[in-house]
Specification:
Oligomer: single chain
Helix content: 55-70%
Order of helices and strands: HHHHHHHHHHHH
Largest sheet: none
Strand content: under 5%
Radius of gyration: 17 Å
Distance between the termini: 32 Å
Length: 220
């Protein structure tokens, strides 16, 4: 299991390749075709932070350091630098890490309120989601600069959905319905990695019927 100590060591050493491979080995859904594209500072900090919140309760010094690293790298348009300009993979990974920390800071129903969600983190997340919305093409897909085929764009988009589909702010900022419809209409033509990511994203989407065409096709 990838421990807090291991995450801290990889983050402090800026070993981006090891962070991605360690997360993948630990069971994170990181398809091999995307791993090299995700070995970027903001992407590894975001995905590492996302995992860290699963291992800890409440903010820690490490989580604060990782948030600070993300806020320091965010570009004026709200995106995060990656392998290419306007990188949806890196921006989605960073947004997922920020969203996880904000969820962690909210008190559970019926409990005494604890720390108030950091407004700077919330603002950074909002800006990232706005930037992602600007990266959608006419069909609602996200495209990484190295994507050359429809299959490549589908994998990129499915990964973004997998990370963020459960997040209301993402569904409100982006053309979410168009994106889900695109996948529904092509459910029987998705490759294995894309189908798995989209299946998990669909399960995280509270607005969808569990027996949607895409889920039926993936489960068949």
């Amino acid at each position: 299991m990838l421990s807090v100590t291991q995450i801290q060591k990889l983050f402090n050493s800026q070993d981006h390749t090891r962070m991605i491979t360690s997360l993948a080995d630990n069971g994170a859904a990181l398809p091999l075709p995307l791993q090299a594209r995700l070995t970027q500072p903001a992407a590894t900090a975001g995905l590492g932070l996302r995992r860290l919140t699963e291992l800890t309760y409440g903010p820690t010094s490490l989580s604060r350091d990782m948030i600070d690293a993300l806020l320091d790298t965010q570009l004026p348009d709200g995106s995060f630098p990656g392998q290419v300009d306007h990188d949806p993979l890196t921006t989605a990974a960073a947004a997922a890490g920020l969203a996880a920390t904000l969820r962690e800071q909210r008190p559970a129903p019926g409990t005494t309120p604890g720390s108030v969600p950091d407004p700077h983190t919330a603002q950074a997340l909002d800006h990232a989601l706005t930037a992602l919305a600007g990266m959608q093409d006419g069909e609602g897909l996200f495209r990484h600069g190295d994507d050359r085929t429809e299959q490549d764009r589908a994998l990129t988009s499915a990964f973004v959905l997998f990370l963020l589909a459960r997040l209301p702010g993402f569904r409100e900022a982006c053309r979410f319905a168009d994106l889900m419809t695109w996948f529904d209409e092509r459910a029987d033509r998705l490759d294995e990695d894309t189908a798995q990511l989209y299946h998990m994203a669909s399960l995280d989407d509270p607005t969808r019927h569990p027996l949607s065409p895409a889920l039926n096709a993936i489960a068949a």
